[in-house]
């Protein structure tokens, strides 16, 4: 084998190794997803076709990974948003599977509901993802009013770490009308109880009139 042939053979093997290591990771975002956050440029985001949830032979997941020198006071997020449509007037649960490695800051699944007057957000700050673990299901639950304009959701990372997101789904777990009815019934019950209590106190005052009893 000539030196030139041997060199080309080694170059070919090297290119195969590079493709195997890096060819399964792409900075191209999953369809419909966007980069956002206070410092999105400090995080790599894209598609990983080598790591995904489930047992299928072929698949992919979205990922977010901190770059060197990341600022721990800033965050990046891989996210998307859509018009609620069939979710309006319902209590909605978002569930996703997340795999994570070496989360030294914090990560979280987040969901936000936007109306003309306000935004409602759950970003898991009260239960942050830290450390390393295999695929784990996380959930957010929010009410989606009838005037909701959009739902936004995604995975956020603040500080060092690497996280993958896969198999996200939305489910209706209750209607807001039913919740209002239950609340009204509780109010009626409270009012009835209060009225009955005052009547009992009045009766006791009458029965105990003249005796040294104190009724608060």
TrEMBL record:
GO cellular component, one term: proton-transporting V-type ATPase, V1 domain
InterPro entries reported in the protein's UniProt record: ATPase_V1-cplx_csu, Vac_ATP_synth_c_sf
Secretion signal, residue range per the UniProt entry: 1-23
Pfam families named among the record's database cross-references: V-ATPase_C (PF03223)
Alphabetic keyword roster: Hydrogen ion transport, Ion transport, Signal, Transport
Gene3D superfamilies (UniProt xref): Galactose-binding domain-like (2.60.120.260), subunit c (vma5p) of the yeast v-atpase, domain 2 (1.20.1460.10)
Gene Ontology molecular function: proton-transporting ATPase activity, rotational mechanism
Domain of life the protein comes from: Eukaryota
Subunit structure: V-ATPase is a heteromultimeric enzyme composed of a peripheral catalytic V1 complex (components A to H) attached to an integral membrane V0 proton pore complex.
Function: Subunit of the V1 complex of vacuolar(H+)-ATPase (V-ATPase), a multisubunit enzyme composed of a peripheral complex (V1) that hydrolyzes ATP and a membrane integral complex (V0) that translocates protons. V-ATPase is responsible for acidifying and maintaining the pH of intracellular compartments and in some cell types, is targeted to the plasma membrane, where it is responsible for acidifying the extracellular environment. Subunit C is necessary for the assembly of the catalytic sector of the enzyme and is likely to have a specific function in its catalytic activity.
Protein family according to the UniProt entry: Belongs to the V-ATPase C subunit family.
Protein name from the UniProt record: V-type proton ATPase subunit C
Species annotation: Rhizophagus irregularis (strain DAOM 181602 / DAOM 197198 / MUCL 43194)
């Amino acid at each position: 084998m000539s030196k030139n042939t041997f060199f080309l053979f080694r170059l070919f093997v090297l290119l195969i190794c590079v493709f195997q290591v890096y060819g399964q990771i792409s900075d191209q975002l999953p369809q419909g997803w966007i980069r956002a956050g206070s410092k999105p440029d400090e995080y790599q985001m894209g598609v990983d076709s080598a790591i995904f949830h489930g047992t299928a032979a072929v698949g992919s997941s979205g990922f977010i990974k901190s770059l060197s020198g990341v600022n721990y006071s800033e965050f990046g997020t891989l996210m998307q948003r859509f018009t609620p449509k069939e979710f309006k007037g319902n209590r909605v649960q978002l569930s996703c599977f997340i795999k994570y490695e070496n989360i030294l800051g914090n990560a979280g699944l987040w969901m936000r509901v936007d109306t003309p007057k306000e935004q409602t957000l759950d970003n898991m700050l009260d239960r942050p993802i830290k450390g390393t673990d295999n695929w784990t299901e996380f959930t957010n639950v929010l009410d989606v009013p009838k005037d909701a304009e959009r739902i936004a959701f995604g995975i956020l990372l603040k500080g060092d770490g690497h996280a993958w997101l896969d198999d996200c789904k939305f489910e209706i777990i209750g209607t807001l009308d039913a919740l209002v009815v239950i609340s009204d019934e509780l109010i009626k019950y409270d009012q009835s109880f209060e009225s009955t209590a005052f009547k009992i106190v009045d009766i006791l005052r009458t029965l105990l009139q003249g005796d040294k009893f104190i009724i608060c």
